[in-house]
Specification:
heterodimer; A: 460 residues; alpha/beta; 10-stranded mixed sheet; 5-stranded mixed sheet; 18 strands; 19% helix; B: 360 residues; mainly beta; 8-stranded antiparallel beta barrel; 3 helices; 21 strands
């Protein structure tokens, strides 16, 4: 940061200090000059305990932020593009690399799917495509779309060694419930998620007929531990994470599940251009490889963004996105919001999906550190007009997150709703119906258990 | 107040005056007592530091009649400090109290006040103490004393096992007939403090000017180490002045406001938890406005884990005073005394505190 004046609207709304511990005191509350300070001081130019760096200057445009953290290394990626489909002329791997590079995207997951399955399968090798170059990676993987199992939602499976999830994928299976286990058995690097969160309604439950791509089984898959992320492909005309995706994501996180949120283009289907579509910034450690990028996705170190100019990061007590942070009730948490924007930008801090406070940061690369007290286990996220971070999970006194009995009830009722749909053949699962109903019932039982743990008594 | 006690305090004060004690504090405590405390009402008490820009941890030591002294904290209530006492019972004849302010190892105390307890405003004989409604006093008992202060109604929050397990030291200031502590050296040297910039201490300070200390009893705490580049505790005061004078540098720092400052801040969180941060403040003045960065490192405390953060700041300076706010919603007000910059802070959700930094 270098001396840019701040807007007058800088002050925060009330910060939710909830139930601070009464009567706790340090022994010496008297301010003293640094000469007799007993602790380390971020900004003094010496790297001390708890600091990743300390260069003693007031600039964020170098290798050390003023909060004494090293800037996160974000890799822009699109986890959902295709070479073929949707009545558009095929894009060769080199063309895809070119399109992604033109929009500053370093990693692209080119997903083989049912449309053009045979020719695209030939591009799948389990390794980076040879067209990858200049530090940009194109890697072919799988979307369960336009296959029979796609009727219950489009699973996206990244890091596969093999595409053969079925001997007759266009007929069987008719539910994707078994596929995450099949995928993850191939390699520990595999990350499984589901696409098209934007088709979920912002309120109520989805019902057939739907135009496309509803992630019907996502709550069940999450309850089974099958999926790690949800992708939105909605374009710019609203929040970065659209209302439907947010509703589903929030309900699951408020019920105590972990789920990363990603942005993708689904080029050339949902979006005919990559530019302007959602994308995903992933915090990557070490040299950029597809495996390192997948590790960031699996860990939930993701931010949905709309372009390369706006970036957003959040650390809680110095821990990266996706972490689980332990705290005591009322303990002061340090929440650092790191933004990069060509213009002053407002950033909201969400606690359990609800805006808790906001800051306005000057243009450029900036850091603002908030102090937050939590009375109960919660998840935190941050969003601006151009970026929305994934979650960090705060376990207060070791307790799981049970932030909303209403959201747990919503999921419980949804599993009943889904069961009704498949029983009525409005979603046809054929011979997979009994197994699916069992899985839905098991998920519902888990949602009900969590509903009661969240303080719910009657879910109707 | 027993005459013996009054005599003892007077004796202590007299010892200070008579010997022109070599130690002093850079601040004093001011307070105007009410005519009475109303029985069964929670009295609000206010004390101000002199100079008003001084920041300290402030508490009031109080008792009813001849009971033991208890201690209640005061919180920053810009530009002074405020707190509440427990409700004196109608059976109590009077309440005796003294304010105690501590900063940088130096403690200043107010005059001891003895105020009668009145059954109602009609029998007060003047202006009664302000009443605080809807609050209860928090206070600590000396070792061996009951958790509830005799002569007062109600129970302090947390009284009982917690208080008994962690009794506070008895209020030193009101121990009878103890002469003020005299430090072996007249000018404490800040530990590990860099040499003060020559220009940092204005001529008036070097020549013995500064703020007169107005309170009666002043005790320099052992190991006083409120060092800073511009701090110079010294003998002082005009001849015949009963109070020693202390000079802190005055005016703006040498080289102007721009630069880097290091120090600490005390943050009082809602619920009574207090934490300390080490802070580094970089200020960049331009055309009457200030911008910069405040980096901080939180020391572990009962409600904090160690960690660091930072915020951009913006504000303005006027004369030796300045104000700035951080992107996280904290507001800082302070004033320069040479290279020392100190003041108060407030934050979202009822956070309050004090801060003090020295220019590096």
């Amino acid at each position: 940061m270098r001396g840019a004046p701040l807007p007058a609207v800088l002050l925060l709304a009330a910060l939710p200090f909830l139930a601070f511990l009464p009567g706790c005191q340090t022994n010496d509350p008297t301010p003293t000059p640094a000469a007799d300070a007993r602790g380390s001081a971020c900004g003094n130019g010496r790297v001390e305990a708890g600091e990743e760096c300390d260069d003693g200057n007031s600039s964020n445009d170098d290798a050390c932020l003023v909060s004494c953290a090293a800037p996160a290394r974000f890799v822009a990626g699109d986890p959902h593009v295709h070479s073929r489909g949707c009545l558009v002329a095929p894009s060769s791997p080199s063309r895809l690399v070119q399109l992604l590079a033109a929009d500053g995207i370093e990693v692209g997951a080119a997903l083989v799917w049912g449309d053009g399955f045979e020719p695209d399968s030939a591009l799948f090798t389990g390794a980076d495509d040879p067209a990858s170059n200049g530090g940009r990676i194109l890697h072919y993987d799988l979307e369960v779309s336009a296959f029979a199992a796609g009727n219950t939602g489009h699973l996206v499976m990244l890091g596969l060694r093999d595409l053969g999830f079925s001997s007759d994928p266009f007929r069987s299976p008719k539910t994707g419930l078994s596929l995450p286990a099949w995928a993850k058995a191939q390699d520990p690097r595999v990350a499984v998620g589901m696409a098209h969160g934007q088709f979920w309604p912002a309120s109520g439950f989805p019902s057939p007929p739907v135009a496309c791509c509803m992630p019907w089984e996502l709550p069940v898959q999450v309850a089974r531990g099958g999926v790690a992320f949800l992708i939105t492909e909605r374009r710019v005309d609203g929040p970065v994470v659209d209302a439907g995706t947010f509703q589903l994501w929030r309900a699951l996180l408020n019920t105590g599940y972990k789920l990363a949120v990603l942005g993708g283009s689904d080029y050339p289907c949902i979006n005919r251009e990559i530019a302007g579509a959602p994308r995903t910034d992933v915090i990557v450690e070490g040299p950029l490889t597809y495996d390192a990028w997948l590790a960031g996705v699996r860990a939930g170190r993701t931010v949905v963004t709309l372009d390369a100019a706006h970036r957003l990061n959040m650390r809680v007590n110095g821990q990266p996105l996706g972490s689980e942070v332990s705290a005591r009730a009322g303990e002061v948490l340090l929440v650092s919001l790191e933004s990069q924007s060509p213009e002053p930008t407002g950033v909201e801090l969400l606690v359990n999906g609800v805006p808790a406070t906001s800051v306005v940061l000057p243009a450029g690369r900036q850091v603002a550190t908030l102090r937050l007290g939590l009375a109960a286990s919660s998840w935190l996220s941050a969003r601006s007009l151009r970026a929305h971070t994934g979650a960090t999970y705060v376990a207060v006194d070791g307790r799981p997150i049970r932030a909303s009995a209403a959201d747990a009830c919503y999921l419980l009722r949804y599993t009943d709703h889904l069961a009704d749909l498949v029983r009525g053949r409005r979603i046809d699962l054929g011979e997979d119906l009994p197994a699916a109903l069992d899985a839905y019932a098991a998920a519902g039982a888990e949602f009900e258990r969590r509903f009661r743990e969240a303080g719910g008594t009657a879910c109707r | 107040m027993p005459l013996r006690r009054a005599a003892a305090l007077a004796l202590a004060a007299g010892a200070l005056a008579a010997t022109a004690a070599p130690q002093g504090a850079s601040f004093g405590v001011e307070h105007t007592p009410p005519s009475c405390f109303l029985a069964d009402e929670v009295p609000r008490v206010v004390a101000c530091l002199q100079p008003r820009s001084a920041r300290a941890a402030v508490r009031v030591l109080f008792r009813a009649d001849d009971g033991p002294f208890y201690a209640a904290p005061l919180r920053s209530d810009v530009p002074c400090y405020a707190g509440v006492l427990p409700r004196p019972s109608a059976a109590a004849a009077r309440v005796t109290y003294v304010f105690e302010a501590t900063a940088g190892g130096v403690t200043a105390r107010s005059r001891e006040h003895e105020v009668p307890v009145a059954a109602g405003a009609g029998t007060c004989g003047g202006k009664p103490a302000a009443i605080a409604r809807g609050v209860r006093a928090e206070y600590q008992a000396p070792p061996g004393a009951p958790g509830r202060a005799p002569g007062f109604e109600g129970r302090p929050p947390g009284a009982g096992a917690a208080v008994a397990a962690a009794p506070v030291p008895p209020p030193r200031a009101v121990e009878p007939a103890r002469p003020p502590v005299r430090e072996p050296r007249a000018t404490p040297v800040p530990r590990a403090a860099p040499e003060p910039a020559r220009g940092a201490v204005p001529a008036e300070a070097r020549s013995g000017g500064g703020h007169a200390v107005r309170n009666l009893a002043i005790v320099a705490g052992a190991g006083a180490a409120a060092g800073g580049t511009a701090l110079a505790l010294r003998n002082g005061g005009a001849a015949g002045d009963a109070t020693p004078a202390t000079t802190l540098g005055t005016g703006l720092p040498a080289g102007g406001i721009a630069g880097r400052y290091e120090g600490t801040e005390t943050v009082n969180y809602p619920g009574g938890c207090t934490g300390t941060d080490d802070i580094v403040l970089t200020l960049d003045p331009s055309a009457g406005t200030l911008s910069g960065v405040l980096s901080f490192t939180v020391r572990p405390c009962a409600c904090c884990s160690a960690g660091s953060g930072a915020n951009p700041v913006t504000g303005f300076a006027s004369g030796t005073n300045l104000q700035f706010q951080t992107a996280a919603g904290f507001a800082y007000a302070g004033s320069f005394a040479g290279n020392r910059l100190s003041g108060q802070l407030t934050g979202p959700g009822g956070i309050a505190g004090t801060w003090s930094v020295d220019k590096r």
